[in-house]
Amino acid sequence: MVSHRIHRIAPDRDDTSFFSPSPAPADGLNSTSSLKLNEQNEHLISNLSSSTLSSQKPSYTPPWTEPYIIGVAGNSGSGKTSVSQKIISELNQPWTVLLSFDNFYNPLSPEQRIQAYNSEYDFDTPESLDLDLLVDCVKSLKNGNRTEVPVYSFVEHNRTSKTTTIYGANVIIIEGIYALYDKRLLDMMDATIYVDTDLDICLARRLNRDIIERKRELHGVIKQWETFVKPNMVRYVNKTMNNADLVIPRGLDNTVAINLMIKHIQNQLATKSAEHLKHLRELGKLDLDVGNSTDIKILPNTNHLRGVHSLLLCKDTPRTDFIFYFDIISNHIMETALEFLSQYDSIEVPTTGTNKFQGLRQVEEVVAVNIIRSGDCFMSSIKKSVPEIAIGKLLIQSDSNTGEPQLHTESLPPSITDPSKVVFLFDAQIISGAASIMAIQVLVDYGVKIENIVLCSYLSTEIGLRRIVHAFPGVKLVLGKLSNMDEGKSHQYNVEGFRDTDWIFSNRFIDSLYFGTD
């Protein structure tokens, strides 16, 4: 099992352009592959294109709760793993998960392991696999849950005590000889592929794999092939070809069929991406009364803070001064965020002499989460305000082709799963709001209550704010400056009349200046 993540950094965009089309298939399709492709192609297009995306929901639906699931089956040694890796490479999607049947063999008893060492145990029958566990794992990933995938040792012929944790998947590829065997899996798949390769080639590949990679003896590999592998192929595996949307003869060598398949999958993912962006835009069209919201705090327009804003927004401010004054504004944001804490115990504190002070002790524990790299600008203030605070990080970047936000990395402290924790989420700038929405969804998936999330940002557009609030009613926000969607609109918090389209609100620059990477 491989969890494949690709780091693609791109500027924030808010468009709905599709993926760039794949190269057109080359000429020279031979008669065998042409016949099978012609037979299967119409079924592929009609079956996959007819699947509709879920209807618009009033709340946010993250991409990883609707992953695109692909099943890749074929005989042992047919090249299905290579085809799966080719799909991963060509799709170039972050959070692509490859679930291999190799990790879902049933644990063996001591007697069965002795048989396995003597090449006398049948690993190629459906009963040798824990299909129930595989189905549960796919369902869990499909629902956007953190999922534990088992790890199997072919050296020990047993499942190990280790597991691989997967959270979030845009694409799930299920690869194995019985990938198209179980109806429960078939019902969850968006595309089904069968890799059809000559049995002599399959045997040669299996010999190479088992002898070189798994350190097996030649006579044992041949014995296992003749006794178990080949008979089960004829009895079970070959029949699953009828469940395939696309049959690929000759495996990885059939570049024409693979290009056709990848192009279609790219189109389906592009449609899914466009629907996600459309949903985010619709959230921004809903009205919001910022002035009367108790969940939104904007720093007051005092002379002191206006002076700090003047230095931060001036293009001629030296970087050392920019860092100094941003730390000042982030301290104010932190202090304002702490005002959302409501649980305190009364304590009596002794002072010098005989007097005692009737004070308070904070009960709620705070966890900080930064959206890399923008949120890292708040690190100095976080550590000064709450020295022992636990800190987590999220890497969310926009796809360079579609502008869709994509979660690349999440590293959160274990304590965040405690529902009583209050989480301060930091992002120096909110432009489209998409990254913050995705970050909040991650926290919710980890069990954080929406009302216990405080999003802290220096600059925010009104469109971004609207999307966040309507996606997650009850989330708290602390902002240094807020612009407006409409031209000429002025409020107490925006006496300057900043618009969402103004350069300082529509371009990320704070983290570049703060860390000196512009």
UniProtKB/TrEMBL annotation:
Pathway: Pyrimidine metabolism; UMP biosynthesis via salvage pathway; UMP from uridine: step 1/1; Pyrimidine metabolism; CTP biosynthesis via salvage pathway; CTP from cytidine: step 1/3. InterPro entries: P-loop_NTPase, PRK/URK, PRTase-like, PRTase_dom, Uridine_kinase-like. CDD domains: UMPK. GO terms for molecular function: kinase activity. Coiled coil: none annotated. Residues 69-256 form the Phosphoribulokinase/uridine kinase domain. Keywords: ATP-binding, Kinase, Nucleotide-binding, Transferase. It catalyses: uridine + ATP = UMP + ADP + H(+); cytidine + ATP = CMP + ADP + H(+). Signal peptide: none annotated. Residues 12-33 are annotated as: Disordered. Belongs to the uridine kinase family. This is Uridine kinase. The lineage of its organism: Eukaryota, Fungi, Dikarya, Ascomycota, Saccharomycotina.
